[in-house]
Specification:
By secondary structure, the chain is mainly alpha-helical. The chain folds into three domains: 22-252, no CATH class; 263-506, no CATH class; 507-599, no CATH class. Helix content is 82%, strand content 1%. The chain has 23 helices and two strands. Helix 1 (2-53) packs across helix 3 (73-108), helix 8 (254-296) crosses helix 11 (323-341) and helix 18 packs antiparallel against helix 19.
Length: 599
């Protein structure tokens, strides 16, 4: 289980790096306006994709793992066969729904120029759905390599093809404009069939198509990923021994398998609908209540962020007397902090994916020892990763934001973002294990519990936002409280039910206390060393990323990481299995065991 999780974690980190390498040059090439068209396509694509993909991949993984554990290999293959047909239907419906609503969404909600990008991303739902049958099957067989490789192929396809299409469209459009202007003596030109007279007009035609090219790269990347999985299955199949397959019990009828799969998936689909609806209501509610707080007591809210707001006003980025603009400014700062909130959970979510087949197998054969081992491993590794990352993020919020968003005129909003980032950093461990706890309940056949938990937590979150964000003295920080409450409720309720159902007693000293002590030492070291370095070496005024603040931040984080690793080993917070999955892990584990550094 842990080996599979590490494979998926490595893949997702690589995917995130590739994603950054895609988005930075994309934004540079098509500009903020083009990025807006790209984002508009994703804003409507993401909820439809999330609902279409909810449930069935988990159901496939769980059912396959249970069938293999019980020696029903023909049943496992029947599940895969049925899942492909179901995913074909779901993927087709998802794509058709997006194609149908694309025009009204673009015209009345986003921008009509977003339509090409929305149409280009629609087929990706079909490809991603169909490939999930293969991913779910191999994950059920506890082979995470096909999923990991396909994720990297998908990201690389997006990077290479998306950027190539942007460059091709931009160059072709500008060439048409220049040629037309030259031919008409500077009067007008025809760009992609549209008559324009200025470069700005030309860009208004070119950029939406370039954004669509970027999105098309995403779709082609998902197609390449699907083709890889299909080829992998044809070449490697599932490695079942023919004699074992022949002697295994006959499989159930396809309709019986489909009904069971849908029954398992329905609570997860409902959870996805609730979650996406909550996010939609959340966005609308927070902005409405923030506006209400400003209208109620404008000076109180503005005075809380006076330094940032006044500086933004001096730079011409904000009309300090406009309620709508001030609201959007504070909302934008909050959104920047949200980018950091999802960093660690994106990695730890892979623990839940890997835990589903392992826990489903142990549950099917009633192996309590393996159930406890799986649950403890997911929680322990989740804490080992999330505690230092979260506490480090909280202790180093301002230095990290300064390094990323620059110095001087470009970082005036950091004073608003940093306290929000501190709050989310401290609760990162809770947020990081919310999805893995949900996955583990799904693995033991209780997908209904996370559905109810999400519904209850969502109601509390929306109520909290409505009440607190509307208070001038709290305003946007009310959204932080609501989000933290949302995750605390989910994790506490899920964990209570998981331990009760599995009848597992967790060793909280090893799972939580030891990593927490090491993480606190890590945060203190990072904060103190950064402070000492910036006092010894005076801050320079250059805009270069290689300034004294950056060097102090990097050294602080590095020293914190070293102290964390040493502390964790001295506290025996790592067990042999955790080390064994690393490259040359067996040798490292033997050496650490020799010195009594393993738990």
């Amino acid at each position: 289980m842990l080996n599979g999780a590490m494979v998926l974690m490595a893949a997702i980190i690589l995917v995130k790096i590739i994603g950054a390498l895609f988005k930075m040059p994309m934004t540079s090439m098509i500009g903020i306006t083009g990025r807006g068209y790209f984002n508009s396509a994703y804003e409507i694509y993401t909820p439809i994709f999330a609902i279409a993909m909810a449930g069935l991949p988990v159901a496939v993984s769980k059912m396959v793992a249970e069938s293999v554990a019980l020696g029903r290999l023909r049943q496992a293959r029947r599940i895969f066969s049925v899942s492909k047909k179901l995913f074909l239907i779901v993927g087709t419906l998802g794509t058709l729904i997006l194609l149908i609503i694309a025009f009204p969404y673009a015209k009345w909600i986003a921008n009509i120029k977003s339509l090409p990008a929305i149409l280009c991303v629609a087929p990706s739902i079909f490809f991603c759905c169909y490939m999930s049958a293969y991913r779910g099957y191999y994950e059920g067989l506890r082979n995470m390599v096909p999923t990991a490789i396909s994720q990297v192929i998908e990201a690389l396809g997006k990077l290479l093809i998306g950027l190539a299409l942007i460059k091709l469209i931009m160059n072709r459009g500008l060439a048409q404009f220049n040629a037309g202007i030259a031919a008409s003596g500077g009067v007008s030109a025809e760009v992609f069939g549209t008559k324009v007279t200025t470069l700005n007009e030309a860009n208004s035609v070119i950029v939406p198509r370039a954004a669509a090219g970027a999105v098309l790269g995403v779709t082609i990347g998902s197609l390449l990923s699907l083709l890889f999985l299909m080829a992998f299955y044809r070449l490697k199949h599932d490695s079942f021994h023919p004699e074992q397959v022949r002697l295994s019990p006959p499989p159930q009828e396809g309709m019986t398998v489909a009904r069971e799969m849908i029954t398992i998936a329905i609570p997860m689909v409902v959870s996805a609908v609730i979650l996406n609806l909550t996010n939609f209501i959340d966005v609308a509610t927070i902005q409405a209540r923030l506006t209400s707080a400003l209208n109620k007591d404008f000076s109180t809210v503005v005075n809380m962020y006076a330094a940032s707001i006044n500086r933004a006003s001096e730079l011409g980025r904000l009309n300090v007397n406009d309620v709508a603009e001030v609201m959007k400014y504070i909302w934008g700062a909050y959104g920047t902090a949200l980018d950091f909130k999802t960093l660690v959970p994106t990695i730890t979510i892979q623990l839940g994916v890997s835990a589903i087949p392992a826990l489903a197998t142990a549950w099917a054969i009633k192996n309590k020892k393996d159930m406890r081992s799986t649950i403890e491993t997911v929680l322990r590794i989740g804490m080992i990763i999330a505690l230092p990352a979260g506490i480090g993020m909280a202790c180093m919020a301002t230095p990290i934001l300064t390094v990323i968003y620059g110095r001087g005129n470009s970082n005036e909003a950091i004073r608003i973002i940093a306290p929000i980032l501190v709050s989310y950093g401290l609760f990162t461990p809770i947020i990081a294990i919310s999805t893995p706890t949900t996955n583990m309940l799904q693995a033991v056949g209780r997908a209904d519990i996370p559905m109810k938990t999400v519904a209850a937590a969502a109601v509390c979150k929306i109520l909290c936002n409505f009440i607190l964000v509307g208070m001038p003295k709290i305003n946007i920080y009310g959204a932080v409280v609501g989000t933290i409450l949302f995750y605390v409720l989910i994790v506490s309720i899920n964990m209570g039910f998981l331990l009760k159902i599995s009848q597992v007693r967790v060793n909280w000293l090893g799972v939580f206390c030891k990593p927490l002590v090491a993480a606190l030492l890590c945060g203190i070291t990072a904060f103190a060393s950064h402070g000492i370095i910036v006092r010894i070496f005076p801050a320079d005024t250059t805009q270069s990323i290689l300034n004294s603040d950056t060097i102090a931040t990097v050294i602080g984080i590095g020293l914190g990481a070293v102290v964390y690793l040493i502390s964790l080993l001295l506290l025996k917070g790592v067990v042999k299995e955790d080390v064994s999955v690393l490259p040359k892990g067996e040798k490292i584990a033997k050496m650490l065991e020799k010195y009594g550094l393993l738990g």
